[in-house]
Write a structure and sequence with these properties.
It is a single chain. The protein is mostly beta strands. 10% of the residues lie in helices and 44% in strands. The chain has one domain. The protein has a five-stranded mixed barrel with strand order 2-4-11-10-5. It has a three-stranded antiparallel beta sheet with strand order 8-12-13, covered by helices on one side. The chain has a two-stranded antiparallel ribbon with strand order 6-7. The longest helix is centred in the first third of the chain and has 21 residues.
Length: 207
């Protein structure tokens, strides 16, 4: 990986951590209040779908968020894991709680992990987290805080079928899909936008 890309990913990770520390004043032990404002929460030791390395397929349909806004929909298959995870309880189509009252529904949230189950060469397996920057010409999938339906268990990995919005950004986006293979950028990978253009960012090379 180029030094430029490494610096971008470090900055992105630090920004996410900073946002989490700033806004995660509530925990899963507290009763959340419904509102249109962000309610960043550490969901403690709950089941969730981790879509960070998934690629998706456009459905041709739409998905609505909690504000009733329509988004082009994609379908993503994501592993279900258990642990502490970060959610916006008012984001996406979450219903104000870390877990759903429907036992067949889990939410797609996020955790920082060195390795987790991923689909590699057609096989579900635990693999290291590898981040890459994708160009703005490609669309990505935004699955954070969206509902998923429990699916099959393959190779010991419980899976969820998630319906998420398709997004675009004017700069670039970061994804953990593809194990660093840039071809994954064109497969509607789950990711998040960068708020700057990496090609115009000055990187200090130590001089």
């Amino acid at each position: 990986m180029k030094r430029t890309d490494t610096r971008i990913l470090q900055l992105t990770a630090m920004a996410l951590v900073g946002a989490t520390m700033l806004f995660a004043a509530t925990t899963a032990d507290a009763k959340p209040k419904q509102s249109s404002h962000r309610q960043l929460t550490i969901c403690q030791n709950t089941e969730f779908a981790l879509c960070a390395a998934s690629t998706c397929v456009a459905t041709g349909g739409i998905v609505r968020d909690n504000q009733g806004m329509k988004h082009k929909a994609v379908s993503c298959e994501c592993p279900i894991i258990t642990g502490d995870n970060i959610a916006d309880l008012n984001g996406g189509n979450m219903k104000g709680s870390c877990t759903s009252s429907d036992p067949n529904v889990v939410y797609s949230t996020f955790e920082f992990s060195d390795s987790f189950p991923q689909l590699i060469s057609g096989t579900w397996q635990v693999a290291p987290s590898v981040m890459q920057v994708c160009p703005a010409q490609d669309s990505f999938s935004q699955c954070w805080n969206w509902q998923c339906t429990r699916g099959d268990t393959v190779n010991g990995v419980a899976l969820a079928d998630c319906t998420c919005p398709m997004e675009q950004t004017s700069n670039s986006f970061v994804t953990q899909a593809g194990q660093g293979d840039p071809s994954a950028c064109a497969e509607l990978p789950v990711g998040g936008p960068l708020f700057f253009n990496p090609t115009s960012t000055h990187v200090d090379n130590g001089h």
